[in-house]
């Protein structure tokens, strides 16, 4: 049987309730939400409202209207960065970021985008704070880089390369103390680690739906705190204020042009409900147990090098390794072809993180368990890696 160890890319399989709710939405009430007054439209509107409310309660977001549905976290981060930053603003980020953060920042630096092109001149500037070779971020290093024009701090909550957990609570406190906005990329942590936007002083929280929240691909959201001046990323129909050429100026319509992914959002709601029913701790404990098994098994194999912290409590369920003298692409290929084990190799869309841990440009082999993996899967992985390392 195939063994899927690529949950950090997309979780698979999903809880049964997710498949059911996606299917029911498509089959039974899949009309356009918020666009017609008829009963099917009201039903889809209700599904969207319920998922929005569920997200708000799960992340302690004060008002569910401030949850903007996006198609993934990349879109949410683009909205946050391009909508919030202006010419001349300074941004602080870490050296463990995914390209979902680094590429929009690069675009905003040079060449500038509108509104920078029109009379604004110049782009933003950024400081990338260096993390340790295990991926740890020292919050004091962020504080040291704050300047009078620093407008935003943006960091990932957990690395998608080595799983290292970054100290968002401490960074959130610094941001609050200095009056700087704080954006968190929770792609790898939402659904695994507790996140409370009020306790953690998060002004904008970007999440993708298809990883540990168990939703389908094509789902995600951005939370934007009240009072932040964030311009929309896209304009179009919202089903509200239709007489005007301008986007409505109220949440969430201001940011949500175009028909939403209702079947996906229904599935995302079912995914979060599953987590609430199981309990975040139970899910985290199981993934931690399996991750510990992987680390213990791999670290005893001659020629295998593990990256990141050796303490599983300091990471999410992501393990990166290499085998001495072997290209990670070749190892991933053998795992796939010979052992039917699915991993992810290369740079994982995070070249800076690989520079930080010393594996640029070849990258690593990454294995990431999910809630539905078993100890038997891990035994097979360890045996396969042992064989490959010996060959
Ligand atoms: C830390 C991090 N940020 C952003 C992303 C981008 O996620 P998506 O492709 O769902 O937008 C990922 C997914 O690989 C990730 O791990």
Structure characterization notes:
- This protein is of the alpha/beta class and about 400 residues long.
- It has 2 domains: about 15-275, Type I PLP-dependent aspartate aminotransferase-like (Major domain) (Aspartate Aminotransferase, domain 2, 3-Layer(aba) Sandwich); about 280-390, Aspartate Aminotransferase, domain 1 (Alpha-Beta Complex), CATH 3.90.1150.
- It contains 11 helices and 13 strands.
- Strands 2-8-7-6-5-3-4 form a 7-stranded mixed sheet, sandwiched between helices.
- Helix 2 (about 40-60) crosses helix 7.
- The chain is globular.
- The model has no long low-confidence stretch (mean pLDDT about 95).
- Pyridoxal-5'-phosphate binds near residues 9, 100, 188 and 208.
User: What is the CATH third-level topology name of the largest domain?
Assistant: Aspartate Aminotransferase, domain 2
Beta percentage is 5-15%
CATH architecture of the largest domain: 3-Layer(aba) Sandwich
Provide the list of bound ligands, each named once.
Answer: pyridoxal-5'-phosphate
Number of E-state strands: 13
Q: Going across the major beta sheet, what is the strand order?
A: 2-8-7-6-5-3-4
Mean pLDDT: 95
Low-pLDDT stretches: none
N- and C-termini, Cα separation: 23 Å
Number of helical runs? 11
Helix content: 25-40%
Highest-level CATH class of the largest domain = Alpha Beta
- Gyration radius over CA: 21 Å
Question: Could you give a short account of the major beta sheet?
Answer: 7 strands, mixed
Overall structural class, as computed from helix and strand content, comes to alpha/beta
Shape: globular
**H-E string:** EHHEHEHEHEHEEEHHEEHEEHEH
The CATH homologous superfamily name of the largest domain equals Type I PLP-dependent aspartate aminotransferase-like (Major domain)
Domain unit count: 2
């Amino acid at each position: 049987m195939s063994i899927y160890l690529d949950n950090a890319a997309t979780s698979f399989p999903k809880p049964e309730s997710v498949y059911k709710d996606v299917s029911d939405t498509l089959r039974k009430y899949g009309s356009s939400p918020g666009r017609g007054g008829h009963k099917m439209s009201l039903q889809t509107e209700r599904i969207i409202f319920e998922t929005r409310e569920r997200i708000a309660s799960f992340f302690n977001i004060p008002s569910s209207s401030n949850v903007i549905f996006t198609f993934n976290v990349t879109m949410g981060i683009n909205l946050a960065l391009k909508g919030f930053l202006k010419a001349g603003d300074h941004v602080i980020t870490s050296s463990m970021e995914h390209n979902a953060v680094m590429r929009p920042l690069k675009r905003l630096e040079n060449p500038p985008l509108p509104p920078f092109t029109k009379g604004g001149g110049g782009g933003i500037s950024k400081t990338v704070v260096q993390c340790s070779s295990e991926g740890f971020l020292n919050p004091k290093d962020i504080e040291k880089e704050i300047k009078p024009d620093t407008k935003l701090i943006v960091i990932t909550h957990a690395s998608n390369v080595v799983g290292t957990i970054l100290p968002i609570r401490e960074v959130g406190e610094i941001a609050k103390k200095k009056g700087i906005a704080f954006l968190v990329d929770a792609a790898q942590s939402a659904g695994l680690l507790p996140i409370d936007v009020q306790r953690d002083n998060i002004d904008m929280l970007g999440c993708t739906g298809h990883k540990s929240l168990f939703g389908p691909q094509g789902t995600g959201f951005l939370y934007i705190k009240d009072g932040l001046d964030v311009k929309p990323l896209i304009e179009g129909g919202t089903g509200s204020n239709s007489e005007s050429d301008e986007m409505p100026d109220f949440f969430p319509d201001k940011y949500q042009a175009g028909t939403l992914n209702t079947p996906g959002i229904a599935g995302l709601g079912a995914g979060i409900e599953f987590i609430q029913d199981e309990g975040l701790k139970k899910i985290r404990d199981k993934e931690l147990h399996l991750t510990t098994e992987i680390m213990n098994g791999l670290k005893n194999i001659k020629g295998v090098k593990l990256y990141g912290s050796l303490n599983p409590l300091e990471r999410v369920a992501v393990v990166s390794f290499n085998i001495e003298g072997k290209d990670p692409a070749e190892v991933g290929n053998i795992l796939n072809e010979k052992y039917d084990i699915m991993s992810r190799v290369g740079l994982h869309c995070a070249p800076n993180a690989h520079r930080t841990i010393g594996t640029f440009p070849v990258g690593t082999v990454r294995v990431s368990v999910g809630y539905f993996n078993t100890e038997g899967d891990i035994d097979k992985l360890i045996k396969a890696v042992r064989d490959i390392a010996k060959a």
